[in-house]
């Protein structure tokens, strides 16, 4: 695990240290006095342990600090990354002042490197598009007594009995791939400003803001947006038309009644919809896919296309039908017999962002934990470092060597990282690092599966 983590950093992100050191150091003037604990460390030395914390799946700053106090862990960190290891309170001091926008630029730069190297090309659903899932999720529940600095940004919820509580949401942009990889690209915070609660921020407004930034950072990237039924509206269509993006949107009963009325009227006509059937098989089931689609539906001066898939599963031994599922989407890609299965598969892949959230909340990301409890700027910077760490973790997880190792050992991904933490705590990595330095003298690459 350590070897492959070093491989990912060496092969894909060799200039990450320079990028971290290139962040504008805010420790000057009054800010310098405020950050007095961190003055002996460079910006890179303060940011890197936050990334390592999330790579290792540590539960909190205190959890990492306890490990860092162990001599072997401290020395192993120094040997692996060539950096001194500060107390994470010093890192938090820096995060309270560090530019969130600059941290996002580092995140997007790392993604751009991978795109330029065509790392994701063979895992795309269509050759010309990267599929980008966008969805919101709740991360913090602040209760009634919220710190003032946080309260200026949090959303407010009022119960029927008048009880007021505060919470924080984020909108995440995640690239999803055929092999199951989820690559976190950028984050938009769904937050109010200055406690103006008459009209609170919402997911749709956050989507409009993050779409602008996504186009700015990746202007030439072929994009297909994957979203749930909340986004079945003209805003999605306008943005995708303006930026020349494609979209595949979950289309629930009740969304866009005028479109559903046209769909239902055409379905009732002979020849009103096109259809095809595809059969497949896995170890346990016969699987039948029944596709129906209608092209060129009109909605507020936009042309959109409707597609439905009914999936039927039957037991291979008994022939008994055991499962039916229905999937319905709207898309601006013209549908035909050759691409209908790929469009459905891409639309269904939107669920990978839900699994991404579940991993960060319950399988090592500790997304619910407040790594800063009193400063919103620090919260954002901790979140950005978490996403950089999970980018690295995904590349390690899907490297051919690690996938085969996990399969052969019968261990979970989280259990593997727990073993790594134990190794760093009780053993020395000197021989591993020396062997790696010899290994990387020859040009190498990370093979993904």
Describe the 3D structure.
With 449 residues, the protein is an alpha+beta fold. It has a domain of 175 residues. Helices cover 44% and strands 22% of the residues. It contains 18 helices and ten strands. Strands 1, 2, 3, 4, 5, 6, 7, 8, 9 and 10 form a ten-stranded mixed sheet that branches. Helix 4 packs across helix 7.
Question: What's the gyration radius in Å?
Answer: 24 Å
Return the string of H and E elements: HHHHHHHHEHEEEHEHEHEEEEHHHHHH
Biggest β-sheet, characterized? 10 strands, mixed
Count of extended strands: 10
Q: Fraction of residues in helices?
A: 40-55%
- Gap between N and C termini, in Å? 16 Å
- Shape type: globular
Mean pLDDT: 92
Low-confidence stretches: none
Beta content comes to 15-25%
- Which structural class fits the helix and strand makeup? alpha+beta
Number of discrete helical segments: 18
